[in-house]
Design a protein that fits this description.
single chain; about 100 residues; mainly beta; six-stranded antiparallel barrel; 2 helices; globular
């Protein structure tokens, strides 16, 4: 069986629906720049809240059955996507992701 972390690696630059442990879902959201470092997978995702669009990240282990949707807690500017994904000190977990489905409609 494919883990959720491995599934995310296969979804670079596609619209996707995120399903949450607490119930509910968001999407389609645009997954961008999926990156694997050691056993950790990270993806940049465009999210919208209160009419404002911003970037967030989905992160977790390749072998994990759940991933975390993390949002920045403060405004910050980055020169590269890699710097954004590595900025652990500005993120907090907003939701626990239990499934990701590509939106091919």
């Amino acid at each position: 069986m494919v883990t959720l972390g491995t599934k995310l690696v296969q979804m670079d630059a596609v619209p996707a629906v995120l399903h949450y442990e607490e119930g509910g879902m968001d999407g389609p959201l645009e997954l961008r720049h999926v990156q694997v470092d050691d056993d950790t997978v990270n993806a940049v995702v465009h999210v919208q809240a209160g009419g404002t669009q911003s970037l967030a990240r989905v992160t977790g282990g390749l072998d994990d059955e759940t991933l975390e949707l993390q949002i920045p807690t403060e405004p910050a500017e980055f020169d590269t996507v890699e710097e954004f994904l590595a900025a652990d000190d500005i993120f907090e977990t907003a939701r626990t992701v239990v499934d990701i489905q590509a939106d091919v409609s």
